[in-house]
């Protein structure tokens, strides 16, 4: 159900790489045409977060909703049309 919310997906089996391999992160960059530092990446697995950070991504480990909303607020990201509280 969750994946149906997205128009486009970068899928590891189609890229031929998995996190934390550099190739999967670079595939996302190629898809978005954005510089590494423009990517905000959230994952619950520390090694995957480290993989993104190693390439210059703004990456955080998911540990809970409250902490995630705090990260959104730090970046000025709005959630449900309002600033994260």
What would your notes on this structure say?
It contains four helices and four strands. The longest helix is centred in the first third of the chain and has 11 residues, at 22-32. The model has no long low-confidence stretch (mean pLDDT 93). β3 (78-79) and β4 form a beta hairpin. It is globular, with a radius of gyration of 14 Å. The protein has a single domain, classed as 3-Layer(aba) Sandwich (Rossmann fold), CATH 3.40.50.1000. The protein starts with 11 loop residues before the first helix and ends with a strand. The strands form two sheets. It has a two-stranded parallel ribbon. A two-stranded antiparallel sheet has the order 3-4. It has 85 residues and is an alpha+beta fold. It has helices at residues 12-15, 22-32, 46-54, 65-75; strands at residues 40-43, 58-61, 78-79, 82-83.
């Amino acid at each position: 159900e969750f994946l149906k919310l997205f128009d486009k997906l970068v899928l590891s089996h189609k890229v031929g790489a998995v996190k934390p391999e550099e190739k999967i992160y670079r595939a996302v960059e190629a898809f978005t045409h954005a510089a590494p530092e423009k990517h905000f990446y959230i994952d619950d697995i520390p090694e995957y977060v480290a993989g993104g950070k190693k390439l210059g991504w703004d990456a955080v480990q998911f540990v809970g909703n409250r902490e995630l909303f705090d990260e959104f607020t730090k970046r000025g990201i709005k959630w449900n049309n309002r600033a994260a509280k």
